[in-house]
Design brief:
Oligomer: single chain
Distance between the termini: 98 Å
Number of strands: 3
Helix content: 55-70%
Structural class: mainly alpha
Number of helices: 12
Largest sheet: 3 strands, antiparallel
Radius of gyration: 30 Å
Strand order of the largest sheet: 1-3-2
């Protein structure tokens, strides 16, 4: 014998409130199969199964209007709708990932700068409000599309929280020692640490690193390679030149 549920029993068994079931009835989403002589709604097992589908689709992020359309149409429409929803979920995941990176970037910048540097924070926020490719657009003279994509993909795939902290540390160490003689062993060690970290971040791709170095030397105002700035770049250049001269002398 097939079971029949009153609205109260259905609410208790499913956890869906009577008020919600009233609303689903009102909009024609889940209508009871029958009523008692006194007008009380009765739900069949098929109605319960339909409610379960509604709850599953609602959990997946479909609107009630979308759910109603799915339930009223064919199986193929189910597939199309679910595929569409999967795409929406992926885009939302990407948005949340970008938001996470933006928040981490702000947190790291405060730790790195030792204070709230609003221009930097605003730049980081703007960075993650745009397509990542737009950030490197100003370097298109030095980086081709494939190289820009590599940089974006490498950052997204390879940079852990520890990597980011290490990157900030090596650049911070250089910033704190800009006064060093470029011929000194200490200065050379700082640049070596920076180069090792750059290799780690960008996969020891010599061609890409060469293009990036050219772009960095022509660094424009912006946040693309934060916290690299002209002072850091010039320090690295001076040490590299000094090392080259030292090698030639010997």
């Amino acid at each position: 014998m097939r079971k029949i549920y009153t609205i109260g029993k259905l609410s208790k068994n499913t956890g869906v409130t009577v008020r919600t079931l009233d609303y689903y009835d009102e909009i024609g989403l889940i209508k009871p199969s029958s009523k008692t002589d006194g007008g009380h709604r009765l739900y069949s097992e098929d109605d319960v199964m339909k409610l379960e589908r509604v709850l599953a689709l609602k959990y997946m992020g479909f609107s009630l209007e979308q759910i109603k359309d799915i339930l009223e149409n064919s199986t193929s429409n189910w597939q199309d709708s679910i595929q569409h929803q999967l795409e929406l979920v992926k885009r939302e995941q990407e948005r949340l990932k970008m938001l996470e990176q933006a928040l981490l970037g702000v947190a790291y910048s405060i730790e790195f700068e030792g204070e709230i540097n609003w221009p930097v924070i605003f730049s980081i926020i703007q960075l993650y409000q745009h397509d990542p490719g737009d950030v490197l657009e100003q370097y298109k003279e030095y980086l081709n599309e494939d190289e820009m994509k590599k940089i974006i993909d490498m950052n997204a795939a390879n940079m852990s929280e520890e990597d980011i902290k290490e990157w900030l540390k090596v650049i911070g160490d250089i910033r704190d020692n800009l006064h060093l003689d470029p011929n000194s062993e200490e200065a050379e060690q700082l640049v070596l640490c920076w180069a090792n970290q750059a290799d780690k971040m960008f996969g020891q791709d010599e061609e890409l690193l060469g293009s990036m170095w050219e772009a960095l030397q022509n660094l424009q105002e912006g946040i693309a390679f934060y916290p690299m700035d002209k002072d850091v770049i010039n320090f690295i250049k001076r040490v590299a030149i000094a090392k080259g001269e030292s090698t030639n002398d010997s």
